[in-house]
Write a structure and sequence with these properties.
single chain, alpha/beta, TIM Barrel, 2 domains, 43% helix, FMN, RNA-binding, tRNA-binding
Length: 334
């Protein structure tokens, strides 16, 4: 099995626009020390012209963390990689899979599946401009493309460019007729297509994304590919990340220390508020914690209602946690 530099490459939390911001990643890092965490997609033009510290800054505790970039201009992508390199990311990834209206108007994201030669030029420029490994995340095809031909062609130009990994969302993207939301569910999953790509490229890291709902399903896929990504399942039910280090990376099984997680996030929220931020920017990513446990509904209610009130502070996290009835050993762990 081929691996690359990032210790978390075997399991990752997928990049998700409006979800996997720095606060989300800091929270997820409290649940897993080893998984690779991705930023939201950031457009190369924004990196070049925008507020770089706001867009690219992150807490050192988030490592290993990967930056996902959107764009289709090789020169701009290379410049964005050079700029981002100074921030210390562990990986830079090119988005060749997002089907949103935004990327279609800019002719990047999943649209690039239709222009594999341009993808090769973009990735070559990124590899030359980046001080860290460059990877690509794509679909198996778009619209009426033949997935066999489309994915192989994309993979071949990516490998020739010197990328370190190919992450494949195992669905087609329909650029016409389906919304971005529908593109996450309606096109059928084809894991076998990704398995065939891995067999064809035994010396290339191939990771699988799309539709994985449980850690059991993800671990099963590791028999066929080098890495797996969880997206919405990891975000909406973050407790699933608690077993990743032991089950995927072979770490020692440890009791879940929920009080320590709450303390860490309260401390983080306090620092964020002191810098002018709002509590809700942090706690919105934590709503799904404790799903299925007694008191989870009250936890969600307290955070949802209280975090938006003027003056809301970190103490609200402790108040909400007091309503959750976790196992005594877990509550007493701190």
């Amino acid at each position: 099995m081929t691996v690359y530099a990032n210790i978390g490459s075997r399991f990752a939390v997928a990049p998700m626009i409006d979800w996997t911001d720095r606060h989300c990643r800091y929270f997820h890092r409290q649940l897993t020390r080893r998984a690779l965490l991705y930023t939201e997609m950031i457009v190369a033009d924004a990196i070049i012209r925008g507020d770089r510290d706001k867009l690219l800054g992150f807490d050192a505790a988030e490592h290993p963390v990967a930056l996902q970039i959107g764009g289709s201009d090789p020169a701009k992508l290379a410049e964005a990689c050079r700029i981002a390199g100074a921030y210390g990311y562990d990986e830079i990834n090119l988005n060749v899979g997002c089907p949103s209206d935004r990327v279609q108007s800019g002719v990047f994201g999943a649209c690039l599946m239709l222009q594999p030669d341009l993808v090769g030029e973009c990735l070559t420029a990124m590899v030359e401009g980046s001080p860290v490994p460059v990877t690509v995340k794509c679909r198996i095809g778009v619209d009426d493309q033949d997935p066999e031909e489309a994915l192989d062609r994309l993979a071949d130009v990516a490998v020739a460019a010197g990328i370190s990994a190919i992450w494949v969302h195992a669905r087609k993207a329909w650029l016409q007729g389906l919304s971005p939301r529908e593109n996450r569910d309606i096109p059928p999953l084809d894991y076998d297509r990704v398995h065939r790509l891995k067999r064809r490229l035994p010396d290339v890291f191939v990771g699988l994304n799309g539709g994985l709902q449980t850690l059991d399903a993800a671990v099963t896929e590791l028999d066929h590919v080098d890495g797996v990504m969880l997206g919405r399942a990891a975000y909406q039910t973050p407790d699933r990340l608690l077993d990743v280090d032991a089950r995927v990376f072979g770490d020692e099984v440890r009791p879940v220390d929920y009080p320590a997680i709450i303390d860490a996030m309260a401390d983080y929220a306090g620092r964020h508020i002191a810098q002018g931020g709002r509590l809700g920017q942090v706690t919105r990513h934590m709503i799904g914690l404790f799903n299925g446990m007694p008191g989870a509904r009250r936890w969600r209610q307290i955070l949802s209602d209280g975090a938006v009130k003027p003056g809301a502070g970190p103490a609200l996290l402790h108040e909400a946690f007091a309503a959750v009835r976790v196992a005594p050993a877990e509550r007493d762990a701190a």
